[in-house]
Amino acid sequence: IDNKGLIYYIEDNENVFISYPKDNNLRADYDITGIFSFYEENINKEDYETGDDFSIIYDVKPNTEWINEKESQYKSNLLYINNLELIDFSYTRVFDNMFMGLSKIKNIDLSSFNTRNAESFDYMFCGLESIEKIDLSSFYTTNVKSISGIFMDCKNLKEVKFENFKTDNMTNMSFMFYNCATMSNINLNHFNTEKVTDMESVFENCHNLSELHIEKINAKSVSSTRAMFYNCHKLKNIDLKNFKTEALVNSNLMFINCDNIEYLDLSGFNLSYNPYPNDMFIGCKKLKRIKLSDDLAENITKLNPSGIWKNINDNSIFNSKLYPQNRIFYKGEYVKIS
Question: In this structure, are residues 289 and 314 in contact, taking their beta carbons and an 8 Å threshold?
Answer without folding.
Answer: no
